[in-house]
Amino acid sequence: MKKEDITGTIVYLLILGLGAIFIFTVLRDRSGASGLGDIYWLFNLGALVAGVIFNAILFEAAHILGALIGGYSIVSVTILGLCFKKDAGKWKFCFSSYNGLTGETKIVPKENRNKPSNPYAYLLFGSLLFVLEVIGVMIVFSMYRKELGGLGNVAYFLLTMGATGLMIFVYNILPFKLDSMTDGYRLTKVTNPKNREAFNELLKVEYDISQGKEVDVKVFKEITNYTADLNLNKVYSLLDAKKYDEAVVLLDDIINARENVSRHVYIRAKAQKVYIHLMNDDIEAAMTYYDNEVPVSERREIADDNAMACIRAYILMAGLLDKSRSEVVIAINKVDKAIKKTPSNRKPIETQLFNDALKKVNNLHPKWELDKYYLEEVAVEKKEEEKENSDH
Predict the structure, then answer these.
(1) Predicted pLDDT at 126
(2) Do 92 and 134 touch, CB atoms closer than 8 A?
(3) Which residue of 181, 279, 292, 303 has the fewest C-beta atoms within 10 A of its own C-beta?
(4) What is the reported pLDDT for 255?
């Protein structure tokens, strides 16, 4: 299990724990004074649902306000799967997946500005508006909490909505990488000026790719986690164009800056380089690189990592060097989950790179019967398109 999966599980347990404490203390103590009888808990369920909806809207409204103040244009706003996105200058409604707990606001830096767009307001305003919500809730609650029925129930209804917002806030503000990119995690990264530049460049690259534009990805020489991720966009475009020598140069920049990046960024860059050598060198040259430059500890890390870059590298390692069908199949069995977690702009090329690796192993070991494991590139792109563009 990856570190972010473990952290995510802990955070979800924390949120559920806060919810349980609230239910079995505050709400249970109120039940006798509510005057609602058997429908008391149904009333609270309504408050919970209203809290999720209200706070989902609040946080995305905060993102919109912060983005506009910071000098960004709004690309799309998704709240609980309901999406409003700009297409050819017009706003359209659709259903969409999203990268967040309750929603996502996609933005792109405005062009022709005197100063670079600044993401701080975009990342901070969700917390600011939630604080204002808490102040409003506590004012009403302190005024009417002792009332029997009527206004007292309204006070507890609003308190439950605020408690629901607290759970969303806790998820969103913790400075860890979870199963989605939270504001708290991104805030820890953009304190570095180079990361802010890379943050904006990533937004532009992802937007241009989504619009089908030709993208000339900027390459950063100062390597951090953020700039490394941006440089990997360039690596993918080079791999797609079969410009392997140029891709290796960029990968070496990341590998040589191992002290400045997280371990998983480093090991995935190393896996990309292993992939290039095993796909394009003759077997003797590839084996020389593998023996001299990839220690056993890193081989294990590549084998254990669940990213597509490591999976396809390990398929080649297991198939071409170790000649182990069982290990190849173990890696293949992780592909469905991994491709779903791959950023949409990288899925087409990752699909092709995986298929290329599997084909090379399959050609060497035709009796292994690996043909059924190829990914269908058109199907992957269609599925993504249906999620993002299905009109109401």
Answers:
(1) 93
(2) no
(3) 292
(4) 95
Q: Is the pTM of this model over 0.85?
A: no
Neighbours of 371 (CB within 10 A): 10
CA–CA gap between residue 162 and residue 147 (Å, rounded): 19
Q: Please give the radius of gyration of the chain, using alpha carbons only, rounded to the nearest integer.
A: 25
Name the DSSP letter for residue 110. P
DSSP 306: -
Domain ranges of the chain: 3-187, 262-389
In this structure, the number of other CB atoms found within 10 A of the CB of residue 54 comes to 16
Give the number of other Cβ atoms within 10 Å of residue 87's Cβ. Answer: 13
Contact call for residues 103 and 171 (beta carbons, < 8 A): no
| pLDDT for the residue 217 | 77
What is the three-class DSSP state of 323?
coil
Regions of the chain short of the pLDDT cut 50: 378-392
Strand ranges for 3-120 from DSSP E = 72-79, 82-87, 90-95, 103-109
CA 291 to chain centre: 34
Q: Measure the CA–CA gap between 135 and 254, rounded to whole angstroms.
A: 46
User: Which pLDDT score is estimated for 386?
Assistant: 43
User: What are the E-state strand segments in the chain?
Assistant: 72-79, 82-87, 90-95, 103-109
Cα gap 134→294, rounded to integer Å: 53
What's the rounded Cα separation, in Å, for the pair 386 and 26? 44
* Spatial CA neighbour of 282 closest among 201, 192, 360, 358: 360
Task: State the DSSP H helix or E strand holding residue 162, giving kind and residue range, or none if neither.
Answer: helix 150-173
Q: At what angle do helices 183-190 and 193-210 cross, to 10 degrees?
A: 120
Other CB atoms within a 10 A radius of the CB of residue 389 amount to: 14
Which residues, 6 or more positions from 377, have their beta carbon under 8 angstroms from its beta carbon? 348, 351, 352, 355
- Rounded-to-integer distance, Cα 390 and Cα 95, Å: 6
User: What pLDDT digit, counting tens, does each position of 144-196 carry?
Assistant: 988 888 899 999 999 999 999 999 999 999 887 777 778 998 898 888 887 88
Q: Supply 118's token pair.
A: 């600044």
C-alpha triplet 323, 246, 273: angle, nearest 5°: 25
